Design the sequence.
């Protein structure tokens, strides 16, 4: 083989290797970008769930105050409930189909939560307007208050169930974050065609219980703080 042939062969091999290396590099970069987007979406989702949980928890406390005020003669509750600003784009970059399906279910509950919240706020505003305007006879007043108390009871039941769902989703997201946080492991699993390990139900239940306990503690601390503030004003 002549020197010219050897040179041409070497140039061809070098060109081929460069092409393959470039394609592999592009592939790995795309894979890395997709996994980073997935992890960032998980982190953002956890923050959103925490925000949703705090609003639901606050509304639960406010609903108790409203129900207590309504049950008293000639009382006029001033508290109002807070709507949730629903983020429906966070799931776009997620890779976990099971998690995406859970989020879709939560989004349905969020829409119902906002619908019920708007309705209760509307009824409270109408009630307040009628009482302050002096256009609400005692019989209608009694009917109105009974209706609001019934709404409050249904709303409380829904919020308890919703908080339980949010805690379950938060538990799953936290555990998924912990399993997906190492880029090297994700890459090796992908190249070896290994599916992501399923998160055990027992682990989810354990983490969910921890989150619910934290919510309960946060609620109790909030109640104590409000009681302190009220006692100072007396």
Sequence:
């Amino acid at each position: 083989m002549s020197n010219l042939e050897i040179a041409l062969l070497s140039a061809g091999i070098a060109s081929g290797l460069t092409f393959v290396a470039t394609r592999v590099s592009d592939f790995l970069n795309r894979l890395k970008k997709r996994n980073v987007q997935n992890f960032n979406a998980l982190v953002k989702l956890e923050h959103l769930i925490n925000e949703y949980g705090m609003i639901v928890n606050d509304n639960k406390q406010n609903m108790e105050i409203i129900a207590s005020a309504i049950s008293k003669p000639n009382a006029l509750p001033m508290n109002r409930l807070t709507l949730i600003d629903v983020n429906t784009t966070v799931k776009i970059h997620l890779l976990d189909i099971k998690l995406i399906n859970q989020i879709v279910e939560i989004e349905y509950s969020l829409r119902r939560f906002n619908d019920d919240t708007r309705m209760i706020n509307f009824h409270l505003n109408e009630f307040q307007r009628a009482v302050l305007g002096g256009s609400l006879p005692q019989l209608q007043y009694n009917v109105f208050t009974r209706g609001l108390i019934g709404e409050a009871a249904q709303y409380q039941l829904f919020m308890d169930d919703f908080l339980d769902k949010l805690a379950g989703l938060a538990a799953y997201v936290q555990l998924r974050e912990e399993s997906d946080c190492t880029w090297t492991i994700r890459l090796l699993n992908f190249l070896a065609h290994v599916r992501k390990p399923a998160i055990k139900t027992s682990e989810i239940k354990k983490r969910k219980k921890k989150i619910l306990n934290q919510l309960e503690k946060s609620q109790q601390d909030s109640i104590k703080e409000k009681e302190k503030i009220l006692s100072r004003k007396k």
User: Anything to note?
Assistant: Residues 59 and 81 are 6 Å apart (CA to CA). The chain has a mean pLDDT of 78. Residues 30-233 form one domain.
